[in-house]
Q: What sequence folds into this?
């Protein structure tokens, strides 16, 4: 590679990575600090319908229903719709046996989570009702519904995302848990400055009239929650409204990430209008950075890996040391990721010096494969498999 080309590739890659991981979070922080919005809350509680899709959730469905009915919310304002997506393990009968007032079961043939959610929401005829989306294996804090609902006193708010936590953070997935901690901070800054990019599927709420039927092949939480933005409203974050659930299973983790990334790019294609800065202002830049640049960061990382050794060999003095450190640092990062992969079935894999680089590389590689799948028209997110905690 010519030295001049290596120079431009190196520094353009550094600039892109620095902006994505450091510059933009700083911009979010400054925007939240100096142009932030004060959250509005009201005492009047709107009627809520809890929307839940379920496929073979017999081990947890009755506990989930009991948890939902135990929410600190007036019973006369709370109803539940469970859409069973072709369950064949007795889930439907367990819901029928539960027999609570305001509980509706829709028993559907196998069609995927998105179709199940569409069918569940279609049962809600009141356009002013609030939809609370949650998963069957997510336990909601008793105050969660009340905290989410309070934000709808502000007519500018179209949706509210809650805060998901792992019920057993010490079990596995140290890299993913670190990601959730960063995501929580980013959402806090985004919400204070305007809107979060999207909500987390385990717990979020949306005004009924802002719901757009969820197409096949998209991530349901992103597509549904960004209906608030598409409708000209804010999508805010309420960190006190908490949901608790299991860590995603580590087996087939890479396949799961590829599926999620593929669906993420498909979702962006369906919501591409949100990337228009003339209509959506700062949110368009936020969406581009969060959902496009971060997912394609493997490209500048690879360009760094290629160009740094070229500049190391061609430079002298302090710059030779700089490019040498850049080369060695990258090799150390990816070497630690490889060690995390090779040791993933041992206790050593839980050490952060191995788990974080492994998770970082895995997510970025999966994102690029997901992009290629989307560009090639390969559908990888059409059916829902609870054992993978995603769609399949």
A:
């Amino acid at each position: 590679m010519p030295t001049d080309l290596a120079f431009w590739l190196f520094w353009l890659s550094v600039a892109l990575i620095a902006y994505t991981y450091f510059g933009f979070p700083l911009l979010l922080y400054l925007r939240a600090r100096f142009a932030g919005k004060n959250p509005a809350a009201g005492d009047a509680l709107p009627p809520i319908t809890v929307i839940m899709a379920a496929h073979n959730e017999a081990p947890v469905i009755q506990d989930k229903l009991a948890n939902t009915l135990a929410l600190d919310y007036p019973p006369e304002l709370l109803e539940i719709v469970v859409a069973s997506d072709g369950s064949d393990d007795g889930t439907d009968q367990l819901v029928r046996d539960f027999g609570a007032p305001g509980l509706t079961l829709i028993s559907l043939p196998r069609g995927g989570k998105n179709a199940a959610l569409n069918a569940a929401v279609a049962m809600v005829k009141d356009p002013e009702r609030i939809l609370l989306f949650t998963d069957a294996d997510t336990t909601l804090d008793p105050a969660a519904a009340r905290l989410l609902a309070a934000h709808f006193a502000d007519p500018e708010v179209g949706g509210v995302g809650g805060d998901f936590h792992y019920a057993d953070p010490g079990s596995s997935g140290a890299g993913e848990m670190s990601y959730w901690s960063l995501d929580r901070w980013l959402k806090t800054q985004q919400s204070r400055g305007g809107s979060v990019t999207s909500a987390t599927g385990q717990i979020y709420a949306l005004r009924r009239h802002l719901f757009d039927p969820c197409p096949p092949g998209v991530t349901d939480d992103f597509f549904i929650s960004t209906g608030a933005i598409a409708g000209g409203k804010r999508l805010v974050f309420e960190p006190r409204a908490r949901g608790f659930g299991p860590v995603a299973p580590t087996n087939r983790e890479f396949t799961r990430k590829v599926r999620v990334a593929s669906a993420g790019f498909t979702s962006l294609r369906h919501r591409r209008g949100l990337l228009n800065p003339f209509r959506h202002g700062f949110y368009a830049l936020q969406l581009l950075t969060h959902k496009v640049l971060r997912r394609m960061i493997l490209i500048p990382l690879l360009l760094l890996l290629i160009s740094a050794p070229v500049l190391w060999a061609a430079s002298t003095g302090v710059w030779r040391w700089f490019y040498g450190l850049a080369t060695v640092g990258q090799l150390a990062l990816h070497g630690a990721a490889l060690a995390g992969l090779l040791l993933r079935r041992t206790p050593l894999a839980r050490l952060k010096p191995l788990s974080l680089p492994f998770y970082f590389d895995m997510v970025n590689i999966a994102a690029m494969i997901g992009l290629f799948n989307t560009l090639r028209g390969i559908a990888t997110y059409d059916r829902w498999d609870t054992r993978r905690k995603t769609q399949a």
